[in-house]
Design goal:
The protein is α+β, with helices and mostly antiparallel strands and 111 residues long. The chain has one domain (4-101): 2-Layer Sandwich (Metal Transport, Frataxin, Chain A), CATH 3.30.920.10. The chain has two helices and six strands. A six-stranded antiparallel sheet has the order 1-2-3-4-5-6, covered by helices on one side. Strand 1 and strand 2 form a beta hairpin.
Amino acid sequence: MIDETTFRLESDKALESLKQALIRAEEAGGFETDEKNGVLNVLFEDDSPKFVFTPNTPVRQIWISALSTSYKLEWDPSAAVFILPKTGEDLQALTQRLLREQLQDSGITLH
């Protein structure tokens, strides 16, 4: 497990990068990105339940609440990214897939 300082630095960096990718993708329509107190939210125009991205320092994970499911991403030191162990997807790839499922739009791309 990574130490707390490293976790905070890497999770802040990962969530900021994700936020910027989401803001760029907002032009495709259907959602809006909002950040408050280190928590990133994706709000949908059709009033669907929002996606919530939260760093969880005690367990050194980034948690995502989306599509009625909780996803817990762990730090992968070899790739230097947060991944979902079950699928191997990194934070951005997982978020892209979840957005595509939510909006039923395979053209949504996060970069």
